[in-house]
Design a protein that fits this description.
35% of the residues are buried. A 6-stranded mixed beta sheet has the order 2-1-3-4-5-6, with helices on both faces. The protein has 196 residues and is α+β, with helices and mostly antiparallel strands. It has helices at 20-23, 38-45, 76-79, 99-107, 138-160, 168-184, and strands spanning 52-57, 60-66, 86-90, 112-116, 120-125, 189-193. The chain has one domain. It binds zinc ion. Zinc ion is lined by residues 13, 15, 89, 91, 98, 101.
């Protein structure tokens, strides 16, 4: 059920396993004239049981989409509007970005990606000179595969030492992968634990 282990290159913003039937249910809600501010939107989707996706440009909400419990899949033409936007998204299960999330943000050149959940906030910031990553390059794929392998290795060791429960591995895996992956590219990736 790990999207990182079962990449789905044609889907965007999937947190985990993709349910083909549910994918037909992804809805695009028309934008209201009183679109929420970033803070209002973040507060309202943080505890949502379904995934949402908002684009903000110059602090104004320009698009929003609502998905299912494990993914939101906007149409391609909508994704083109992501350029230079702050992308706000939520993961009901509390995991960090999926591969699809990161690939979409890099491909459509968004300025920032923020994923909120009841307990955690994950943030990815585009460097001043641009993302500088091409996922279609073999070297990038190699770095990603090494990051996945090293994340799994760290998780196995933490579990063996009794530092984490087996059930926490799913929650932490993406976070560990991105810590390793983005440090390789010197791209700021942060996570904030809101439980403290
Ligand atoms: Zn996602």
């Amino acid at each position: 059920m790990h999207s990182l282990l079962q990449p789905s290159p044609n889907r965007f913003f999937a947190e985990g396993f993709i349910d083909e039937e549910a994918s037909q249910m992804a809805v695009h809600r028309p934008l209201r004239s009183d679109g929420k501010t970033f803070e209002q939107a973040a507060a309202s989707i943080r505890n949502s049981r379904v995934e949402h996706l908002y684009f903000f440009r110059d602090d104004k909400q320009i698009a929003r989409f609502r998905g299912t419990s494990n993914y939101v899949n906007p149409p391609e033409e909508a994704l083109l509007r992501m350029k230079d936007c702050v992308v706000l998204h939520n993961h009901p299960q509390g995991t960090s970005f999926s591969q699809a999330d990161v690939k979409a943000v890099v491909r459509y050149d968004a300025a920032k990606l923020i994923v909120v959940s009841p307990k955690y906030v994950y943030t990815l910031v585009r460097p001043k000179n641009g993302w500088g990553i091409k996922f279609e390059d073999t070297t990038t794929q190699d770095v990603l595969e090494e990051a996945i392998a090293s994340a799994q290795d760290i998780l196995r060791k933490e579990e063996a030492k009794g530092m984490i429960f087996s059930s926490e591995k799913f929650l932490k895996e993406n976070d560990y992968v991105w810590q390793v992956f983005f440090s390789h590219f010197h791209i700021p990736y942060l996570y904030e634990d809101r439980r403290h």
